[in-house]
Please model this.
Amino acid sequence: MSEDAQRNPVPESNMVKTEEVIDASAEEVAKSQALMQAVAEGKVEAVEKLLKDGANHSARAAHGRTMLHFATMTGSLPIVKLLLSYGHPWNLVDDDYKSVGDYAKSFNQPEIYDFLLEEGVRTELLMGLMQRKLKMELLEAQQDDDEEEEEGDQEDNEEKEEEKKDAKDATTASSEQEDQDTTVDEEPASKKQKVETLPEVPNAEYLAQPLQYTEDGDRLLDAEKNGVMMGWELPLMIRHAEVISPQKGLRVLNVGFGLGLVDTELQKYSPSEHTIIEAHPDVYAHMIKQGWDKKPGVKILFGRWQDVADQLEIYDGIFFDTFGEFYEDLRAFHEIVPNHLEEGGIYSYFNGLGATNQFFHAVYNRISELELSEMGFTVEYEEMDIGLKEEEWNGVKRAYWTLDKYYLPICRLDGF
Ligand SMILES: C[S@@+](CC[C@H](N)C(=O)[O-])C[C@H]1O[C@@H](n2cnc3c(N)ncnc32)[C@H](O)[C@@H]1O
Model:
């Protein structure tokens, strides 16, 4: 995983700033400057003409402001639309990490804000769709390769068998033993190939590194001091547990143990079944040391949720909170939730999508809501105040949360 390890991050492409235009001719620079000027002055026709004329819209002004930032500041929705239609990205940030959506909020441009939000949602939904399509195509191509190779191997083996048979007739018993030894030592090429081309595990690096629980048990950090789970989240976990287990004696599933905050809360509801999936060996060892395997109703599935999903049963409530995975992984989990949730049951997840920027967070909340609705859920977000002090992040490499509000997802599986 990159050094930007986060909980439920959105793709990093959403967070980076593009470079200035390089290698531009004097004429191109002049055209681009004229465009910037026209945008800043809100001159729609001039902007359209310059864009048509090929003016580059990726130049930036002071503070790293893009043309879209300027169009938003001046409140010109037609210019915002024009820039986007000419391929200006919707998700660039200025030097203070402020997105165009943040500008629309601070400059009180609700119409532009709504438009940008919808644009972000549309673009990301499309990107997700294309990514999944590409992944499917790659997997299919890989399967075809594997099958071809297996067929090739089978033919090779049959040929070898034939050769062996001939040799057996012609040679002594000892030389036949040598032949067999050689065959046993060889790993089939197709198997090696398979391992090398399997789809990558997004948080493989995280899962392979040692973790550390702080002495007070208030933090779980990775080897680079990224916060995997922090004690300040307790009020959130208390509410998540209450939401998925509104009464005693229910069957619950939690994915990702971390500090065990949500599981400790769930135990207070005396669940009749309490399944926990955990993938990291250090966390699993910690759970065993704390006797979690002996707690009432508890069943631990050690492994990645992707690898143990076939052992899941039906639950009344499900909670999901992993580390170092992306929205696409969360979405993949959402796809299997309806198979394991009782009708009317509640699903919830740690909502840290794009949680270092209010606007990106809003875009991902909407995307998640839309996709969950399509999967058969009724979704609502419960607003909670966070009021996080900066000191909370002392000793941690990077804050993974900077927002004031938490939007706790409550997803009820509708009847069919
Ligand atoms: C943020 S912590 C969970 C915190 C937990 N909600 C709590 O209340 O303390 C994330 C946990 O998910 C685990 N994890 C990461 N990827 C996983 C995966 N694919 N399947 C299962 N567990 C995973 C991590 O090892 C870590 O223990």
